Amino acid sequence: xxxxxxxxxxxxxxxNNDFTETCVIKDAISSEMLNELNLGIMEVxxxxxxxxxxxxxxxxxxxxxxxxxxYLKKICETPPxxxxxxxxxxxxxxxxxxxxxxxSGERHSDYISHNILKAVKPLIDLKGIPPxxxxxxxxxxxxxxxxxxxxxxxxxxxxxxxxxxxxGKKMYxxxxxxxxxxxxxxxxxxxxxxxxxxxxxxxxxxxxxxxxPWNKFHVGYSDExxxxxxxxxxxxxxxxxxxxxxxxxxTQFVKKETEIIGNKYNLLENVENSSxxxxxxxxxxxxxxNSSVKxxxxxxxxxxxxNIISNGGWQTIPLSMKDKIGYDVDNDYMKLExxxxxxxxxxxxxxxxxNDILFVYVRGSKFQMQYFLDLADLLDLLNKNEIIDINLxxxxxxxxxxxxxxxxxxxxxxxxxxxxIIK
Length: 423
Description:
Layout: H1 6-15, E1 23-25, H2 31-50, E2 58-62, E3 65-66, H3 69-75, H4 86-93, E4 98-103, H5 105-108, H6 110-127, E5 134-141, E6 144-145, E7 151-152, E8 157-166, E9 169-174, H7 176-183, E10 200-204, E11 209-212, E12 217-222, E13 226-234, H8 238-253, H9 271-279, H10 286-289, H11 293-310, H12 321-325, H13 329-332, E14 340-342, E15 350-354, E16 357-362, E17 365-370, H14 373-382, E18 388-389, H15 390-394, H16 403-415, E19 420-422
Antiparallel strand pairs: 1-11, 2-3, 2-4, 4-5, 5-13, 6-12, 7-12, 8-11, 8-13, 9-10, 9-12, 14-18, 14-19, 15-16, 16-17
């Protein structure tokens, strides 16, 4: 990964004037990384199609037209074979110009989540992490002009495009003021050709990086089959950030209670009676409920940040082992007794103690158990990222609690993708 050293990223920032200007960096991706990212593309397609995960951020275009749910369900019947690469697979499936746009690529591929994060970690160390984290969108196809037409990305969401090829790509961009003068800021504009004389053209191919700040109007052109992995730095407005924090709180701490609330009398005089229906479904300590607004916001922001940091900055959590291979914590935890395991240094397992409860954050997910010093010490050992022989570890004289508790604890971490079993 020498291509993505801290010096590489310093030069990158100098070239794009600290994230403000578009640029192409030639031959940035090594052949080894390129191969693993291509494997990751097939992993994403295989997982999403075999699991029929097509309802959120999975789009297919044929001759520029987005396909409906019936078409997507039909595609699920023929996921890639293990022997397929992107060309062999798409040759079998499509006989017309096509395009995939797939969100949350980091969720469905370890090749992608590990390699891209390892590449950009020095950049994150230099510039910090966006408050909403980072995420992947994948573009695949020979669709010609980007099906979305000329458009501008969401405010604050800068993008680095890792181009895998095999075909090249052209990007045409317009400064906001110039585009306003030409079109009055028309979004998703498919009348592209007349505007090209006013655009700046950027051409890139296999192993190149393309960077573009969020405020450029742009459209891409890919006449030959090409694959791009785009990494998004999500710097939101304060309003959007507030909403995302609240959404995260609702997901983590509000029970999905379905009981119907009946009619009420004297609403203005019985506010406490109405708010009781809200407090009844909150799964937080009374200390949090009774805190000031400031303390409450600090609490839910801290919880959000713990999840982001434990996931290495990725916005979307990975597939659990239950979803990936049918792993069953309750029935399979004893099988960990005779394995060797190792954690990934990119994904630190975070934990904190409150009263007698140990809260554990693994790859963006959280669970809790009764606190024992043995468990806290085990987490510290895991975060050393060394190979651990579980059988030898259990024979340690320092361990006080039963091995069953240790193994169950490890199974919870494994299910949430906190470590790998070494074959």
